[in-house]
């Protein structure tokens, strides 16, 4: 059984660590499974590097390998002989593991149960050039070397023992572990604080929405109250003017009746022939007291009052619209500035992840460029009356041209940059400092028709 195991180890593939399958021999003399060496060389096809995994000898061009018939027959005999054993055990049945290093520094090729790394051949711990143990480490080239390599290829380099390098690397490892644990704790605290801040922010926003609704409701009540007071004032004025007009009508009717009686007396007096009687009746005649008739309804004073009230109402409407637009623009700026600051990437002294884009100034410029700007035309549309006819609609006709230098990376532009479609895949746009990074927007230019 011992001889069978020895033969199995001799016919093992150094790449897959199993019994050779379709064995092929390289020009250097080492033998591998044909699929294993082909796959190994396929990885270096782009660099045109074809070397032996054991002795590192390179071959140019790539050798054409074939299955070794002699080795195939030998492996077949080995399997037949191993099949008569009571407890056959092939190389591939051993659990893969790393070679065990004994305290005295020697290599123990016995497999470790439960290992997670494949077992490496013992030849990997021997210098392929000088066939001497790799008992030194070159810090300049960051590789293990033997004593002969130190005196030849690594002469003048900083060469130390693996134990000394392990001590230094162990110290760095402890620092990295401590740093990683610290960052984990920091992220846990940040997550807790962020969760609390998110809940507080949501509560604050809801309270702000309620306050805004109450403010605008109060403004509406104030406007309605002002409107009702104006209506009441105009109604009282209408009632007063109506009463005054009725009084004028009654007085004018009385004056008209007096004047008619006076006219009758004057006609009767004019028909008297006796001069003495005429003079007596004329001197006894009383002329009616007539006033100026008062202010007539619909006079210039009333017309001026109508025009004055209408002018004040138009001025109130214009000022109200301007005030609403001004405060709406201020609210937009405050909210957009807060959103832009919240979208700026968080940086810390321990961050090592690369960030997209340029430097800090460019990043701030990009963040500023991505803010949704208040469109004055859009605000004016809210205030201006809606067009009804085709001619009125044609006054607002325009053809927007979308800017490809600022389009969001998931927006696809088409139809000569006049159509934007939101896509799941990232579009291949060139880098530009004005490009939107967070908002699915893109500025547009307008061409008048």
Automatic annotation (TrEMBL):
Gene3D superfamilies according to UniProt: 2.60.120.920, Classic Zinc Finger (3.30.160.60), Zinc/RING finger domain, C3HC4 (zinc finger) (3.30.40.10)
Region feature (Disordered): 81-102, 340-371
Pfam families reported in the protein's UniProt record: PRY, TRIM_CC, zf-B_box, zf-C3HC4_4
Residue runs in coiled coils: 242-272
Polar residues bias spans: 340-349
Matches recorded under PROSITE patterns: ZF_BBOX, ZF_RING_1, ZF_RING_2
Highest taxon of the lineage: Eukaryota
The keyword Oxidoreductase is annotated on this UniProt entry: no
PANTHER family: B-BOX DOMAIN CONTAINING, E3 UBIQUITIN-PROTEIN LIGASE TRIM65
Name of the molecule in the record: Uncharacterized protein
Lineage: Eukaryota, Metazoa, Chordata, Craniata, Vertebrata
